[in-house]
Amino acid sequence: MADRERQVIARIAPGVASLDAGQWDALAGGGDPFLSHAFLAALEQSGSVGDGTGWTPAPILVEGEHGALAAAAPAYLKTHSQGEYVFDHGWAEAFERVGGHYYPKLQVAVPFTPVPGQRLLGESPQALLAAVEAVVTQNGLSSAHATFIAEAEVPEFAARGWLIRGGIQFHWRNCGYASFDDFLAALASRKRKQIRKERAAAVEGLEVRALRGAEISPADWQAMWAFYQDTGARKWGHPYLTRDFFDRLGPALGHACLLFVAYRDGKPIAGALNLIGADALYGRYWGAVEEVAFLHFELSYYRAIDWAIAHGLASVQAGAQGEHKLARGYEPVVTRSAHFLPDPGFRQAVADFLDREEEMIAAELNWCREALPYRSSASP
Asked: What gap in Å lies between CA 231 and CA 225, rounded to an integer?
């Protein structure tokens, strides 16, 4: 297709797996494992997205001279609003009550991954957004949604009139700590004591191992799949990712994969899967087949902090939501999404809603900051 106003040549590919890995990764930059060709292709090849999932891969590409990729966006046609972590179910219901069809919609995102990052890959963000908008209007779609966008991308979306929506996550920030004890020293005394008690109780009678890359065996991936299934069944009704995805992830991302596994008498009972970025550790999935007090905090939060300090990473991002992370030293961080709604009436209704929601987010952000456990003289 062509965007006539800017003479942009763009197309929709059948999936990231169909594209040249080198060209895609050159646009993605290499620092974010979730934007890598390997990760997105593994989602497609494992059947985690595609037929029957409600996530139809539709990466949007802008081509330069000789057909080389100049810009790209990971995009999906969605027939539901599951697995996004930016909730628009109310928007869908309102649009359909007045006779519209909200689905399918276009989602610019990394599926099942509430990790802020670049969504407009390459050096032509405005051309790419023009292409995204053209896909929506030419195909009669209700909307396009770019979720968990990088803060630097917000002006690009806003310049074209996309609505900007806020949210809150909780990230741990490394303030130059030399050790976990150094981090604890920045906390109020009561919080330090609480965390030490939690860590001791969590590992009593257990062995915890950190496994990275080739150290993760097929048996370890099988155990992690069992843990993930347990959590997925309780949180979402059924897991989003297939068993085959876990088999592909290790070979695809290699040294970027990090597992914390807890064993009782040599048997794995719980685990947390992380991916390692250029300057952040991303906690993704946790699960257990045995209930142990505080073990979730130990594997998902404290071990991640400890590992990030030891390896000089600037932050730990432990997924969406979770105000309980505040007491563990994770700070509130504003996340952003952008929304293209071509119907004027619908756009105005959503804009009014977002104005009210922004006020609530600001109030929640202030409350969260006041609840942080840091000593006033050591606040990050």
From this structure: 10
